Amino acid sequence: MPEMPEVEALTRFLREHAGGRTIDRVSVAAISALKTVDPPPSALAGREATGVVRHGKFLDLDAGGIHLVFHLARAGWLRWYEQVPATPVRPGRSPIALRLRFTDGTGFDLTEAGTKKSLAVHIVRDPAEVPGIARLGPDPMAEGFTKDDFARILAGHRTRIKGLLRDQSVFAGIGNAYSDEILHTAQMSPFALAASLDDVAVERLFTAMRRVLGEAIVAADGKPPAELKDAKRTGMRVHGRTGRACPVCGDTIRKVTYADSEFQYCPTCQTGGKPLSDRVLSRLLK
């Protein structure tokens, strides 16, 4: 799933490549992906792309006051073309959900792999009309977001820190992968309770969060969309590395599996050497 660093890189890529270009047409191939009806996709035709910004994991292409907002979800992606294929997109078995073509022939597809379709496209006059954006918490990489802001948020939640970091209504943009990396860097158990963390632990977690996300944003910046997925995987130290050696201590990286996701951690670095029970309601083994 694309998270803040990859979405930020896509935002910067689109800002550079789409900015100033005029939209020729928008073709929707997956009707289920389009979550709005007014304005229609045809309203984007003839409008200039005047800006691209990120809201958490949402990308927002501003076409002169009408916004094409999309969330790539678990398996969505953006494919850029210097020359959009002449073959029209049609509903069916194709992974293409939407195609946008500019008048100079450039453009992009929004694609989604797999059978579980959750890519979401909104065409709105105000990004705040998108429910997912309206619910977003603060961006933890925003310039004005401080350690004190972070501490106040944690103090108000007696929930496990792993789930809290992933909650978009609490922190915008962090997902499963980077929360694993942040907790490993902070040497903190995924099951630690947010409100129980002392000042030293909060500072360590805040520093790890800014470091992990900041380094990932720098690493992704300037890469074309086709290279971002591999770059993300290459940069992971624990996420997706079950059974491999921890690059810090050499212990075996383990995982905990839930109904629709899993996370990875290092017992030596994060849980005092104790493995976490691999059940939905896991607790530290005694």
Automatic annotation (TrEMBL):
Which biological processes are named by the entry's GO terms? base-excision repair
Domain (Formamidopyrimidine-DNA glycosylase catalytic): give its ranges: 2-109
Q: Tell me the superkingdom of the source.
A: Bacteria
Tell me what reaction this enzyme catalyses: Hydrolysis of DNA containing ring-opened 7-methylguanine residues, releasing 2,6-diamino-4-hydroxy-5-(N-methyl)formamidopyrimidine
FPG-type domain segment(s): 237-271
Q: Which UniProt keywords apply?
A: DNA damage, DNA repair, DNA-binding, Glycosidase, Hydrolase, Lyase, Metal-binding, Multifunctional enzyme, Zinc, Zinc-finger
A GO molecular function term, named singly, is: 8-oxo-7,8-dihydroguanine DNA N-glycosylase activity
Q: Which family does it belong to?
A: Belongs to the FPG family.
Could you tell me what this protein is called?
A: Fpg/Nei family DNA glycosylase
